[in-house]
Structure formats: structure tokens, C-alpha cells
Amino acid sequence: MTGGKWTFVRISHKEVSIDEPAAISPWYEIFSLPDSSYPNQMSECDHIRHMHKTKNLSGGFTLTNLLRPEARIDSCISLLCSRLATLSTTQRTIPLYKWLHYLGFDVLGEMTFSESFGFLQEGRDIRHAIRITDELATYVAVMGYLPWVHKFLLGNPIIGLLGLRPNQHILDTAVSVQEARREKWDARLNILEQWNWRYHAVKGKGGMEKREIVGAALANIGAGVGAVNTVMQGLFYFLIRNKEWMEKVREEVDQAHREGRLSWPAVQYREAVGLRVVDACYKETLRLFPTIAFALLPIVPTKTTVSVNFWTLHRNTSIFGADAESYNPASWLTGTPETLRNREKFLMPFGVGYNSCPGQNVAVIEVLKTVVTLLRRFEFDQREPEKKENQWK
Ligand code: HEM
Predict the structure, then answer these.
(1) Residues 370 and 80 sit within 8 Å (Cβ to Cβ)
(2) CA distances for 379 relative to 162, 173, 236, 237, 346, angstroms
(3) Atom of ligand 1 nearest to the CA of 225
């Protein structure tokens, strides 16, 4: 169905999805996880309170603050490299997606609490956190449409009282780090501490409650780990299948290495961010795999929900060209300044407006550092050639 210049698709009896960037706004109580007693900015449906939360939390997500614990992120990436190096001598096939997921948990643990969750160290899915997080993603996708059912399930405070919360050990870490923060010498080098500082600075004047700070820390893990992992997997997915681009990226990384521009053992963010081909591949991955595949941002006071799907928007040929379905990082490297500006403007994997993703700096730091460090040290190929055929060749 087309109305004026906008394309509308009815995706359920009460929801219409729009392929149009101008039609964007908020949503969902359901993101209060692991249960309703830990509200976060995402689950805050009141616009004004949501904006206060966003303001209170924003200091934790500045590039300067996030790069303070860079040495600790480096330790996680170095540990990943040594694990992969060891495995590559004994195993023919390594499930990269799993190791990237372990890395994602440990890095976000370090950035948020100065505490790794120990996934890389143990090399396994501790207390099924990854499996549970995946299941929670499905739960959220379904229950977002059935909020009244959610109230009887994870939205029910009794779940917490009975100790049945999913991902209890992530919650335990958040609470115990919050309690032990005074004893940690490097407690200032993390997101949580920035929020604690803000808590004291604006106490009683629109600041957050302690419980909300723990809720926000949990939201970081819940919203961030899977999303960053998806992008990182996507980046390797496309490079492995597009040899030409794998070679171009490698050339760029190898040259920077030969010229002594990349630190060892882990590449620094400021070194990785200047690599143009890597950056183009990152953007192209975000365009084709914007991680959130369902339509976002229900709006309007009528009984019908209106939403925008970035997956569709990013394939809009009037913005991204006739080959919008294809993987083509060159489109971020060539073209008139106007075309490039337009592409950048409508690349929206992190959402837009007041409830857009606060974790985009976290994502770019983790993805660029990891990908460049791994590509400098390892060669990657797919072990199941029969799965190589796909639409993004
Ligand atoms: C490439 C990785 C990521 C992508 C593509 C992504 C995407 C998004 C999108 C599209 C939204 C908006 C949802 C909406 O409109 O309701 C969002 C919200 C959010 N994201 Fe991310 N995200 C990523 C990484 C992260 C990371 C690493 C963190 C935390 C460290 C994070 C934390 C959040 C939070 C807390 C919200 C809720 C914001 C609010 O409602 O005000 N995200 N993300």
C-alpha cells in the first residue's frame, strides 16, 4: 500500500510498518529485564522520564569515558587471540560466532563494571547466559506484541521473589560490583562509576535511583552484547564470502602494521578508526545487517501502531542505489559528497531521536579494535563450502 511518497505495509491486524525515516518515535515496557523490578531507559514509556534517564546516562557513553578502560578491553582481545591461536593448532573448525559472543560479554563487563564475566577464560557459555540471552530476544520479540501476557510471565515481580530470574549471574555481578565499588582502585574507569558520580552530583534533583543504575547496567549487557556480536559476525560473514573485499581490508591492515601504525598485541581504537576500507565494510555491514530485524518505534494515539523497519529502509534504492540489495563497501568510499552525505544520513542501525541507541560508541570501539586485531593475526575461511552460496555474493 502506498500513501503519498511513503510505503506502508500492514504486518499484523493492528500494526503498519513504514519505509520512511521521518516517521519515528518510542516504545516498550517489556525491556525491563531480567524482571519488572529493574526498569531501564528503554522500558520507560513516559517521554519526559525517558529523556531524564537518557540525560543521566549519557555521560557514561561518551567516547572519552569509554576509552578510559581501553587497556582492559585490550586484555580481553588478547585473550581471544591466544585462545584462537591455541584452538587453531588442535581443531580444524572453530565456531567464531561463539568466541565473538564470549568476547562481547567480557568486554561489556569490563566497560560497564571493570569486571570480566570470565567467558573467554572458561571458553564456555557460563550458566547458559548466551542461550538465555538468545531466548530472551525471542521472548521480547513475541511479548512486545502481547504485553498483557508478559505481565504474568517475566513482568511478574513474583519471578524475582522466587529467584527465577533469567541471567541471574549477570544480575549478581551488577549488584555485587555496585556494592563493592569503593574497594576497587580502578572503579572510576567504567560506565557504572560515571553513573554513580552523576547520582551523587544530582541527588534529589532529577537523578536516578540506585536500582535504576543497576537496571541500566543490565540493559547494557542485554541490549549490547548480542547486537555487537551480530555486527561482528556480519562483518566476517561478508568478508569471507567476498574475497575481493577480504583482500582489500587485509592490504590496508597489513600496510598499517608494516608502517608501525598498529599497537601490539591489541590495536588501539584511535589507530583502527582511521582505516577507510575497514570503516566502509563496517558501515556496509550495519546497512545490510542492522541487527534489529523487526519494525521499531510504535507511535500514534489511535489504535493502530505505526513503525519503521531499518532492514527495509536500508534497502531503499532511492537512497542506497540500484544495487541496494548487494554488499558493496565501495559505495562508502566513492561518490559525490552529496551522495555520501545522503547515505550517512539514512544509515540508521542505531535508531534516531531521543530513544536512539546510546551504545554506538561502545559498538564502534569493540568492533573496529577486534576486527583489525584479528585480521592482522589470523586468516579466516568458511569450512562448509556448500553454505557459501548466498544472495550477498
Ligand atoms: C552495533 C551494535 C548496536 C546496534 C545496531 C544497536 C541498535 C539499537 C537500536 C536500533 C536501538 C533503538 C531501539 C528503539 O528505537 O527503541 C537501541 C537502543 C538501545 N541500545 Fe543499542 N545497539 C547496539 C549496541 C548497543 C550497545 C553496545 C549498548 C550498550 C552498551 C546498547 C544499549 C542500548 C540501550 C540501553 C538502548 C535503549 C535506548 C533508549 O530506549 O533510550 N546498544 N540500540
Answers:
(1) yes
(2) 48, 35, 11, 13, 33
(3) 27
Distance 248 CA to ligand 1 centre (A): 30
Per DSSP, helices labelled H in 10-69 are 47-58, 63-67
For the residues 256-275, what does the mean pLDDT come to?
97
Q: Which of 30, 23, 276, 259 is nearest to 145 (CA)?
A: 30
Going by their DSSP bridges, the two strands 2-3 and 296-299 should be labelled as unpaired
CB atoms within 10 A of CB 391: 7
Confidence at residue 356, expressed as pLDDT on a 0 to 100 scale: 86
Distance of CA 385 from the midpoint of ligand 1 (Å) = 34
Give the Å distances, CA to CA, from 16 to 59, 292, 296. 35, 17, 11
pLDDT in tens, 138-183: 887 787 777 778 778 877 777 777 666 766 667 777 777 666 665 5
Taking a C-beta distance cutoff of 8 angstroms, is the pair 248, 202 a contact?
no
What is the spatial distance between Cα 176 and Cα 131, in angstroms, rounded to a whole number? 23
Nearest to 63 by CA among 295, 369, 290: 369
Burial zone of 221 (CB within 10 Å; 0-12 exposed, 13-18 middle, 19+ buried):
buried
Q: What is the CATH number of domain 23-387?
A: 1.10.630.10
The finding on whether 225 has its CB within 6 A of some atom of ligand 1 is no
pLDDT digits (tens, 9 = 90+) for 102-146: 999 999 999 998 888 899 999 998 888 888 877 877 887 787 777
- Tell me the mean pLDDT in the region 353-372: 93
What does the CA dihedral 108, 41, 214, 75 come to, rounded to 10 degrees?
10
Of 41 and 219, the structure prediction assigns the larger pLDDT to: 219
User: How many angstroms from the chain centroid is the CA of residue 13?
Assistant: 30
Q: Is the CB of 56 under 6 A from ligand 1?
A: no
Residue 258 neighbours by CB distance under 10 Å: 9
Domains of the chain, by residue range, sit at: 23-387
- The reply to whether 81 sits in an annotated binding site is no
Nearest atom within ligand 1 for CA of residue 108: 30
Q: Is the shortest distance between the CB of 222 and ligand 1 below 6 Å?
A: no
Ligand 1 centroid distance, CA of 163 (Å): 27
Q: Which residues pair with 307 in a beta bridge?
A: 17
